[in-house]
């Protein structure tokens, strides 16, 4: 290891790339290793994988200097969020009720990666290796060595941001709590008649169906269903699938035309029992995955980045070693509890609204309808969804000016 403040980041997805830029800006030497193709965007392409980005994440990316590039590359702010079960069991959140221009933005994952990577390319403290980490050769309180197909890399610390099936987490034998949600997420992009800049979500008896607004009245669908039901939807012709989705959405965005293939993702709750150890830390999906029903996964990963950057910068300021588990422990204490609370909330909504005893979803649906008229409670809920509640630094908490 040639530098006491050198870091290897395994994985350059949205979370790993944010981690790399945040640490480089704090004077750490960063080597980021990612084996996926670099994003390519064209004006005519149709969005496939998108994320709902909340205000806290947006504030952080603005501080990193990448938000304006994301805005330039393209995003879709939404001013309203409507969640319903039946026509009289619904709740509407409006940005204007909390004096905001929007409640959040839908952004293509590749747009986020492209903006981050263009900043990483220009940063003198960052080296990007487009290959796979094959093996962690050694790790401990004296640093880490990893092997790729072409070289050995050394650093004081490795941060695993290598996604839900993290091979670094597996090689380090880090214990994991796992729970199969019994749902597959179906993802596809549709042309709608008019989405009204609204994020739509309906709790159906099988699972939640969301249509998220994109440019030119396109919508990104995320429909979570038991495997058998999702297989049936996959087997439909695109025309029939459009009819079924539009009907389940009570035709709130009008008729639909499917623009992409339909993709399927099995959904699993994962929570690593440890986030740090001698020579390593986990962030993003490598540390936790949750049900996508509230669109919080990457936002949680970005708050991991905020917290770990804060902890590592403090250690560096005190001139202490960053690879010691004890020094890293405040990060684990901070983020593990926040992420567990979010995972429990997702399980509550997922299980409650699709409970086999009809009384339970009925009570939740009625509760939602009642809440719609209680403005102060509604405002609290929306601030939570915008990522502005909980233990986050003041710099991410500002309501800000939106997109
Ligand atoms: C259907 C669905 C909808 C979702 N919607 C939302 C949403 O609206 N809002 C939201 O906040 N979240 C959402 N999420 C969650 C979000 O997609 C994830 O939380 C996020 O992508 C995790 O990012 P990450 O960078 O941690 O991991 P990943 O995106 O998985 O990135 C990991 C990277 O590491 C690389 N890698 C892996 N192993 C190695 C290795 N050994 N060596 C080198 N590189 C490696 C991979 O190639 C990849 O580039 C959704 C998830 C699903 C399934």
Describe the structure.
By secondary structure, the chain is an alpha+beta fold. The protein has a domain at 6-77 and 104-178 and 268-352 and 393-397: 3-Layer(bba) Sandwich (FAD/NAD(P)-binding domain). 36% of the residues lie in helices and 28% in strands. Strands 5, 6, 13, 14, 15, 16, 17, 18 and 21 form a nine-stranded mixed beta sheet that branches. It has a six-stranded mixed beta sheet with strand order 8-2-1-12-20-19. It starts with 5 loop residues before the first strand and ends in a 6-residue tail after the last helix. The mean pLDDT is 94. The structure holds flavin-adenine dinucleotide. Flavin-adenine dinucleotide binds at residues 10-16, 33-36, 51-52, 132-133, 161-163, 167, 185, 187, 222, 265, 284-285, 292, 295-299, 301.
Please render the helix and strand layout as text.
Elements: E1 6-10, H1 14-25, E2 29-33, E3 50-53, H2 55-64, H3 67-73, E4 76-78, E5 80-84, E6 90-94, E7 104-108, H4 109-122, E8 126-129, E9 133-140, E10 143-148, E11 152-155, E12 157-160, H5 167-171, E13 176-191, E14 198-203, E15 208-213, E16 218-225, H6 227-235, H7 238-248, E17 257-258, E18 263-272, E19 276-277, E20 280-282, E21 288-289, H8 297-317, H9 325-353, H10 359-371, H11 375-385, H12 394-397
Parallel strand pairs: 1-2, 1-12, 2-8, 5-14, 12-20
Antiparallel strand pairs: 3-7, 4-7, 5-6, 9-10, 10-11, 13-16, 13-17, 13-18, 14-15, 15-16, 18-21, 19-20
Helix pairs in contact: 1-4, 1-8, 3-4, 8-9
